[in-house]
Amino acid sequence: MFVQKIGHGFPLLMLHGFPLDHRSLLPFEDFLPETGQWERYYIDLPGLGATRDDTKITCAQDILTRLTAYIDEEFRARRFAIVGYSFGGLLASALAAQYGSQITSMFLLAPETVPAQERRNLAKKVAYHMSDLPDSATQDELQAYKTTAVIYSAESFEAFRRYIYTGLVANAKNPAVEAVMNHPSLDRSPESYLSDYHEPVMIITGQHDSMVGYKDAFHLYESVHEGTFVCIPKAGHNIHVEHPDTVRALFQRWLDGIGEQ
Hints:
- The two termini are 30 Å apart.
- This protein has one domain: Alpha/Beta hydrolase fold, catalytic domain (Rossmann fold, 3-Layer(aba) Sandwich).
- The model has no long low-confidence stretch (mean pLDDT 95).
- Strand 4 (80-85), helix 2 (87-99) and strand 5 (103-109) form a beta-alpha-beta unit.
- It has a seven-stranded mixed β-sheet with strand order 1-3-2-4-5-8-9, sandwiched between helices. The protein has a two-stranded parallel ribbon with strand order 6-7.
- It contains nine helices and nine strands.
- Helices cover 36% and strands 17% of the residues.
């Protein structure tokens, strides 16, 4: 399992989206307070990124199985918190059921809650042109960027190219990607997994997320016992690269809650 560990203190397990890698969550390094009390575990999920050759993946459940084996070995009885982005949010819901209060809290960013894409309640795709995109952008980069972007700006494009597009490229022609796309569901639904979890959960969604939407995540309201739900206006799927200041404020509030437990 590829893991980039940064810092010391209370562990934060960073679970990226699909089909990306750990770099998609590295913007969170700029969201952390200067107190330096958090140890971040940026992993490449089994079958993806730098972990793609470690094991054969035939479905989403395989990724969860390999991930829990890593958690058992790495953390044992140690408590930790989770940041789950998109597909990482789906995995986080299953981990909550398995580890319970050992996971002190979860921060779910644009979480995938309906694995089958054709069943998702998606928002209408819109775009707001804020500034011209750089001339250096390739057609492949622009196409990938415009698929999810809501705020078109040079700043958000550069962040997308650095943190998101790199993972897409790294997983090109990866057989695990096709396998998970064909078998995207876990054994249970997020609602079922989260119904027995009693620790704080913060769920951040984008109003114009055309990948997973926001309405499906808000349906978790009936299942989450201690939840904070936020829908950010003029935001798409990559909320943390489009609205970094807003996500930073919410993330720091979440971290403060862990410190108060």
